[in-house]
Amino acid sequence: MQQSNQKKYLILRILGNDLEGLHGTNQTILNLEFTLKNESTFDNCKKMFILNRIVSKEKKQNIIHLLNTYKYEFIDIPFDINEFKKISFNIPSFTEFKAYDRTQKIHSLINHNLYLINNNGARNFCISYGKENGYMWTFVLDSNSFFTKEAFEDIIKNIDEKNEYLIIPQKRLKDNNLSNNLLLTNHYKQPINDLPIQEPQIAFHKNSKYIFNEKIPYGEAPKAELLNALGVEGKWCSWTNFYDFYGLDIKPRKFKNIHFKKLSYIIRLSPFNNNNNFVNNWDLRYNGLYLLIKDIFNSHLHMSIK
């Protein structure tokens, strides 16, 4: 295991369920292995991983094997079939579901979405863990996020300790159909610079006050809501057109006197799926979520959904 002595920076990556049609079958494992092999070790920094309600026992064991092989600590937020069974079973057929409008789709899967994907729940777990364990900064990262040595060192060199949040712009390799292996070459910088800025990742200072809203489900901009609340400008600000959250009774927040700094960038590794793009992704997310729920019903509960 990594040394247990206290460090200043904590990187926590959240590993969850791959969704059929949106992600490649082994996206999480492939990108995890790439990161464990190739991401640099950073000074005064500890890296850990969160296993976020992973349903597939096989994939979970493969992930644990990889983490053990590379001697990284992890925390398991387990998928509990008994907890899942407490959620209403009133699920339409896939044919019916695909015919629903956006609001109907959101409401029909809301509780399954919040439990299985647990986006903001896992993010808030990371924030609490970092603060409770005395880290100055906790980097709360989505799965498939990767720091180059230069990018992370640029963040550390430019941190202003009066800030409560670090905003780290994201560069998605898929936007220009770049492969992960580009990052292993000496000429990655210009292709990365040419990528557009996407929704940032966030690091939280030990004295930060605000966290993610756990009522916002996956697919409905759960991270963008906090970015907007903090006053971070970007394309995600235009996503506020739907901030009645399609009748979910969620009120967008707006905080005052926030101290944040936008620094460097982080890479989003390949999804290993050619259909994954901003035009298709909302439908692909919800279709993939439905198929995951269907698989649980069929495989774990022995209840058939057509």
Quick recap:
With 306 residues, the chain is of the alpha/beta class. Helices cover 35% and strands 16% of the residues. The protein has one domain (9-299): Alpha-Beta Complex (Spore Coat Polysaccharide Biosynthesis Protein SpsA, Chain A), CATH 3.90.550.
Keywords:
single chain; 306 residues; alpha/beta; Spore Coat Polysaccharide Biosynthesis Protein SpsA, Chain A; nine-stranded mixed sheet; 10 helices; 35% helix
Backbone shape: globular
Oligomer: single chain
Individual helix count: 10
The unreliable regions are: none
User: Radius of gyration, rounded?
Assistant: 19 Å
CATH class: Alpha Beta
Q: Whole-Å distance between the termini? A: 45 Å
Let me know the largest β-sheet. Answer: 9 strands, mixed
The percent range for helix content is 25-40%
What fraction of residues sit in β-strands?
Answer: 15-25%
> Could you please say which CATH topology applies here?
Spore Coat Polysaccharide Biosynthesis Protein SpsA, Chain A
Q: What's the domain count?
A: 1
Structural class: alpha/beta
Q: Provide mean pLDDT, rounded.
A: 90
> What would you say the CATH architecture is?
Alpha-Beta Complex
Q: Could you spell the SSE succession in H and E letters?
A: EHEHEHHHHEEHEHEHEEH
